[in-house]
Design goal:
This is Polymer-forming cytoskeletal protein. The chain is built from 1 helix and 12 strands. The protein is mainly beta.
Length: 139
């Protein structure tokens, strides 16, 4: 009665998907696992894992992921929740939002970049300075 066995749900977060060199894919992809792109993707990629764009890989579109290593080409909007690593062979253009950014020498980075996380905005810094000056003047 109470001893029914429940089948565990598969954990897709450890699975890696791959678009091989010579393959061109047009459309949007959503996945629980990681992705390696050696071919071309013209569309959006929304995954919970890591994205690796190999040296022959190209993406045109929007990518949302946890971590990313880029060796190839990316054009569009890139939103990385944790760490973005740009290898020396990478070419990036568009908009980047990430928590951490690592850029190797030789990487081409023609993008606007917004760092999120513990970085104070300039407006917050101004408010803190103004409040400090008011407190000091009142003494």
């Amino acid at each position: 009665m109470f001893s029914e066995k429940k089948t565990p749900k598969p954990d897709f977060s450890k699975e890696q998907n791959k678009i091989s060199q010579g393959t061109t894919l047009t459309g949007d992809i959503n996945s629980e696992g990681s992705f390696r792109i050696e071919g071309e993707l013209d569309g959006n990629l929304n995954i919970k894992g890591k994205v690796v764009i190999g040296e022959t890989g190209k993406i045109n579109g929007e990518v949302v992921c946890e971590n990313a290593d880029i060796e190839g080409s990316f054009t569009g909007t890139l939103k990385v929740n944790a760490c973005l690593t740009l290898k020396s062979t990478s070419h990036i253009s568009g908009d980047v939002i990430t928590d951490q950014l690592v850029v190797e020498s030789g990487a081409v980075f023609n993008a606007t970049c917004q760092m999120k996380g513990n970085v104070k905005s300039l407006e917050d810094e101004r408010k803190t300075t103004t409040e400090y000056q008011k407190t000091k003047a009142a003494q």
